[in-house]
Amino acid sequence: MIANYHTHTRWCNHAKGEAEDYIKEAIRLGLKEIAMTDHVPHIDNTDPARMKWEDFNAYNQLLDEAIAKYKDQITIYKGFECEYYPEALDFYKKLINEYGYTVMVLGQHRCGPDRYYNAFTNMNKEALEIYTKTVCDALHSGMFSFVAHPDVFLFSYPKFDQHAEKALRTIYKTCEELNIPIEINGFGYHADRPYPNFEALKISKEYKLTYLINSDAHRPELIYTDKMRELEETVAFLGIKVTQTLPEERHIKAI
Ligand SMILES: [Zn+2]
Ligand SMILES: [Zn+2]
């Protein structure tokens, strides 16, 4: 791994460390690029495990300062992990057009009316259809750099069945058509979660896809671990070739 494009900070209220701590660790590891992509804040602050809306300016300033301090040692991108919520899109556009956020990670954890369905608690067949449509709509918006953990719903969905396969095939096909990379998620692998799902990854080989392995680090020391190396080896063993850096056209510069 020479780059990591999915990195959190303590500002999302369920991770540890400042952007600077992750950047220093990435430099120590010899990485060439890092994107800081904490969970985007929402004006309603409904989810306590997210950055608070009123914290954005302070976070953004700290991040800018860290970038200025370390820019000669590593390439640092500003980004966010975002849910595709129609009411949030104006803010995402502002992040891209006015604040210089270019690595926009689609991480769809919730979907449906009032964000009722949650990948970690209550996925079922109906929810899966809504999830798939939401992810595909998001991909078509042109606003996202890549899709994080497309198989995250397996955390609460009973098992990898024909419906799960259909959902993922739809997402893979859309990513193939739009040339949008999919992520193989290191955090899920670290935590022995049901994602990344290797059966799904084998199926994904039927599509022409670009893959990224990211650590989705929630602690600075988890950016690139032995476990991440193990994941890289496992993926290579499946015959999947991973891109080392995010393709230039997936840095969202204006929308
Ligand atoms: Zn997180
Ligand atoms: Zn994440």
Average pLDDT metric? 98
CATH superfamily: Metal-dependent hydrolases
Please summarize the sheet with the most strands: 5 strands, parallel
Q: Give the class-level CATH name.
A: Alpha Beta
CATH architectural type? Alpha-Beta Barrel
Order of helices and strands: EHEHEHEEEHEHEHHEH
Looking at CATH, which topology would you report?
TIM Barrel
- Quickly count the domains: 1
Bound ligand species: zinc ion
For the record, give the distance between the C-alpha atoms at the N and C termini, rounded to a whole number. Answer: 30 Å
- The fraction of residues in strands falls at 5-15%
Shape: globular
The residue ranges in which pLDDT falls below 50 over 5 or more consecutive positions are none
Bin the helical content. 25-40%
What's the helix count? 8
Q: Given the helix and strand composition, which structural class is it?
A: alpha/beta
Across the major sheet, the strand order is: 1-2-3-4-7
Q: How many distinct beta strands?
A: 9
What is the alpha-carbon Rg in Å?
17 Å
